[in-house]
């Protein structure tokens, strides 16, 4: 079977990583796959590093209507049996319209649980062969929007468990992230966007400090548009000395098992791959 996978997200974590897992897994099972991604995407770089067939196109975001022409051109050149649309950043609109124009069957994977107008969810589902939800929470959102139950299947996201089973190295963790010896250490792994709840975690640290509780050093892994805002909030709430900004780390599997727990304060979350990673690493999760 020949499948074209469209991922319009640019960052190589969360959903982007799941796409690479899927494309690689399908290829190992004999499916011929290509990954269609924006030309400036870290997902493209990650796919090529894994030896996956990658096609880059110019894509300037959800307002890039002309992307339909570029996607249709790839569809007509590659002639896949199916196009798999992997994100809501235009893939489920421009990708779906491109599939209809090229006469190629489509499926959509839904990764986020924020509600959209019912008519829009139903229209997208009507144009596809099937909708894949990564959790039962997302399935409930789709069904409540009026998407027919027979069009929805739940296929949970997964992690490569072996990568996360690492012998803890507490001394190394303390040295790497400037954690005083014996101080509790908390990790948070998420993009710096509103729904991930960084502000809630910063407020929790403030409460612990004001009530005389033990304040853990909290290492924030990830990047995103709200990073500076979170840094400023930590300063304003006088807890900056307890917070470390680690950025995106390729070596996260090396360190995660050495933390005392993972904080996952998301306000909206389709599934939460970071929680799966923590479970694989053998540390508890405190979530919202």
Q: Roughly how much helix do the residues carry, as a percent range?
A: 25-40%
Q: Tell me, rounded to a whole number, the average pLDDT.
A: 92
Terminal CA distance: 41 Å
Widest sheet: strand ordering = 3-2-1-4-5-6-7
Q: Give me the number of helical elements.
A: 12
CATH class of the largest domain: Alpha Beta
Number of strands: 12
Q: How many strands, what sense, and barrel or not for the largest sheet?
A: 7 strands, parallel
- The low-confidence runs, each spanning 5 or more residues with pLDDT under 50, are none
- SSE pattern, N- to C-terminal: EHEHEHEHEHEHEHHEHEHEHEHE
CATH topology of the largest domain: Rossmann fold
CATH-defined superfamily of the largest domain:
Glycogen Phosphorylase B
Query: Which oligomeric state applies?
Result: single chain
Second-tier CATH architecture of the largest domain? 3-Layer(aba) Sandwich
Shape, please?
A: elongated
Look at the helices and sheets and give the structural class: alpha/beta
Estimated radius of gyration: 21 Å
Task: Report the sheet-strand fraction.
Answer: 15-25%
**Number of domains in the coordinates?**
2
Q: Can you describe this structure?
A:
The chain has helices at 15-28, 42-49, 67-78, 91-102, 118-126, 136-144, 161-164, 170-176, 198-210, 227-236, 252-256, 273-281; strands spanning 2-6, 32-38, 54-57, 82-85, 106-110, 130-133, 152-154, 185-189, 217-221, 243-247, 261-264, 285-287. Strand 1 (2-6), helix 1 and strand 2 (32-38) form a beta-alpha-beta unit. The protein has two domains: 2-154, Glycogen Phosphorylase B (Rossmann fold); 162-287, 3-Layer(aba) Sandwich (Rossmann fold). The two termini are 41 Å apart. It is an alpha/beta fold and 288 residues long. Helix 3 (67-78) crosses helix 4 (91-102). It is elongated, with a radius of gyration of 21 Å. The protein contains twelve helices and twelve strands. The longest helix is centred in the N-terminal third of the chain and has 14 residues, at 15-28. Helices cover 39% and strands 19% of the residues. The model has no long low-confidence stretch (mean pLDDT 92). It has a seven-stranded parallel sheet with strand order 3-2-1-4-5-6-7, sandwiched between helices. It has a five-stranded parallel sheet with strand order 10-9-8-11-12, with helices on one face.
